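Notes from the 1:1 (GR / supervisor)

We went over the backlog. Supervisor wanted to see one worked example end to end before approving the batch request, so GR pasted a single chain during the call. The sequence is below; no edits were made to it. Supervisor asked that the structure be written out right there so they could see what the output format looks like.
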Amino acid sequence: MLLRQNLIRRKLFFGCGCFDIIHVGHVRYFEEAKKLGDMLVIGVNNDDSVRKLKGADRPIIPENERAEIVYGIKGVDYVFLFPETNVSRYLRALEPHIFVKGNDWTMEKLNEEEKDAIRSYNGEIAIVPTYITSSTSIIERIKTRKS
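Structure output shown during the call:
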């Protein structure tokens, strides 16, 4: 709430993800997201939450390095690590004008708690077009080439 109060007349938008192996899809996601507002805040899953979501052999890149890489991408204003597998708590705390997801998501696939958090303060959800690939598909390609 404090962050939002300091952003009078600025449009805050928020995205999140594991960002295990940064690829062009992530960069394009941030570029498209930046077109929606003034300040882009990104939540990065910490290592424990990535393991819960992706399995014991993930993440490939440690949380602090992933957060630093994301912060280094043009258009990203703030980055934080979070331990949960969904960001409903942070949506309620930040109350971003827009919650941004890449087009690998649909409204039906979004977490219900996150959607409820957005509805609680009349925020919006935007699904932005991106280059569709994933860290998981990149890892699978690497494994296939090693065989």
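Supervisor's comment: The radius of gyration is 15 Å.
Batch request approved.
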